[in-house]
């Protein structure tokens, strides 16, 4: 009797188990799609793409700069996120941060680099404690058009106290505020430095007054992937510096035919000069030495004066304006011209010898000069040099200079 009862109980237990599993399977089939509940019944983990959401989507191509990189846990939390940017044959980790609940992750810099491949590796835990790993990639837009800025002065140079940081862009910039924000100029000791746009292709930056000798200036260009105009993106990302040397200011008095050269406020010498004739008068105003050449060619046709002159070997030439004003050696005029008569086509001339000697006023001045030195010209019959003609921004008062910024 006991034996028969035991068998009946075991048969009932088996029947109950069968009915229970049948009910579970029926519920799984009738209340879910894709068999996910069925998987959970048998302990299969969910697919990684159901646990971890990555934007942009895996395999995306030509992702535009405005899109954002985001990683999200559908449920549970993110354990780790590793993002690597591959660009210009270099792999760079992308730093980022989690939300307080670790359900989302985003990069610290929300801008996506252009012409780059991003690799995203994520480990997450769902609410049931199952770990999932996901690997995705996407590539960003490769721009058809790029712009760069040609910068003055040169990296690691020592320059005069009148130097202005000047960027000339190879394409017109219409998104000036964005480009301006990507250019940072700082000084040690600190001084206020402000930008000014001359049209859409040139950005200059300077302090209110001339630099103090010994100042170290750092220029940061973060133009890469900045949209300077519709569909035109920057290419540069670089930092360079230069140092301000001693102060040298030369005062050219056209009427008196003299140039006083002062070093750190002390008069070094007064040199006899010749300047422009009344018909080809020299500009007045504050100019900055832009270039220095031991010897250069000067052809009147390049500055709109027809065929009036073509001197292939002008010695000790210091360029003062883009339009062609130089302070240079002159070996072709009689010695008694200097200090007495203005005969040039607008340049300032110092006595010299053919080939550029060592014992002439022109050689003496050239050997004591730096790019960035200041030359002030007064008492000429011409007007004041334009602020964008060379590094002529010192001829603009501080209020007007600041008004030329796009970041208002």
Automatic annotation (TrEMBL):
**Location of the active site:** 328, 347
Instruction: Give the UniProt keywords, A-Z.
Output: Acyltransferase, Cell shape, Cell wall biogenesis/degradation, Peptidoglycan synthesis, Signal, Transferase
Residues of the signal peptide:
1-28
Q: Which pathway, per its entry?
A: Cell wall biogenesis; peptidoglycan biosynthesis
Domain L,D-TPase catalytic positions: 248-378
Annotated segments matching region Disordered? 86-105
Q: Which domain of life is it from?
A: Bacteria
**SUPFAM superfamilies reported in the protein's UniProt record:** L,D-transpeptidase catalytic domain-like
Pfam short name (any one): YkuD
What the entry lists under InterPro entries is as follows: Big_10 (IPR041280), LD-transpeptidase (IPR050979), LD_TPept_cat_dom (IPR005490), Transpep_catalytic_dom (IPR038063)
> Under which name does UniProt file this protein?
Ig-like domain-containing protein
Instruction: List the taxonomic lineage.
Output: Bacteria, Bacillati, Actinomycetota, Actinomycetes, Kitasatosporales
């Amino acid at each position: 009797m006991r034996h028969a009862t035991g068998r009946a109980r075991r048969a009932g237990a088996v029947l109950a188990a069968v009915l229970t599993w049948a009910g579970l399977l029926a519920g799984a089939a009738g209340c879910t799609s894709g068999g996910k509940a069925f998987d959970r019944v048998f302990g299969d983990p969910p697919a990684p793409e159901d646990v971890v959401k990555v934007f942009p989507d895996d395999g995306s191509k030509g992702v535009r700069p405005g899109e954002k990189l985001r990683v999200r846990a559908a449920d549970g939390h993110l354990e780790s996120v590793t993002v690597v940017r591959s660009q210009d044959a270099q792999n760079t980790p992308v730093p980022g941060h989690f939300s307080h609940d670790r359900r989302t992750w985003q990069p610290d810099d929300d801008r996506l680099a252009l012409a780059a491949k991003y690799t995203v590796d994520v480990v997450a835990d769902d609410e049931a404690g199952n770990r999932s790993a996901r690997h995705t990639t996407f590539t960003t837009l490769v721009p058809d058009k790029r712009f760069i800025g040609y910068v003055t002065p040169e990296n690691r140079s020592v320059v005069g106290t009148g130097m202005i940081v000047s960027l000339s862009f190879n394409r017109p910039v219409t998104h000036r505020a964005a480009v301006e924000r990507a250019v940072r100029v700082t000084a040690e000791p600190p001084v206020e430095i402000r930008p000014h746009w001359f049209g859409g292709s040139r950005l200059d930056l300077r302090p209110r007054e001339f630099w103090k000798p010994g100042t170290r200036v750092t220029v940061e260009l973060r133009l890469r992937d900045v949209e300077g105009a519709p569909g035109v993106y920057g290419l540069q990302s670089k930092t360079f510096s230069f140092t301000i040397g001693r102060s040298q200011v030369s005062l050219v008095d056209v009427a008196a035919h003299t140039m006083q050269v002062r070093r750190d406020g002390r008069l070094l010498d007064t040199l006899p000069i010749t300047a422009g004739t009344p018909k080809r008068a020299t500009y007045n105003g504050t100019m900055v030495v832009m270039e220095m050449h031991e010897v250069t060619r000067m052809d009147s046709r390049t500055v709109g004066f027809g065929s009036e002159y073509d001197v292939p070997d002008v010695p000790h030439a210091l360029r003062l304006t883009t339009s062609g004003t130089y302070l240079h050696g002159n070996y072709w005029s009689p010695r008694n011209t200097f200090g007495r008569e203005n005969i040039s086509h607008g340049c300032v001339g110092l006595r010299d010898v053919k080939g550029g000697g060592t014992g002439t006023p022109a050689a003496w001045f050239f050997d004591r000069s730096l790019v960035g030195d200041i030359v002030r010209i007064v008492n000429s019959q011409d007007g004041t040099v334009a602020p964008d003609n060379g590094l002529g921004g010192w001829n603009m008062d501080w209020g007007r200079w600041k008004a030329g910024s796009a970041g208002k």
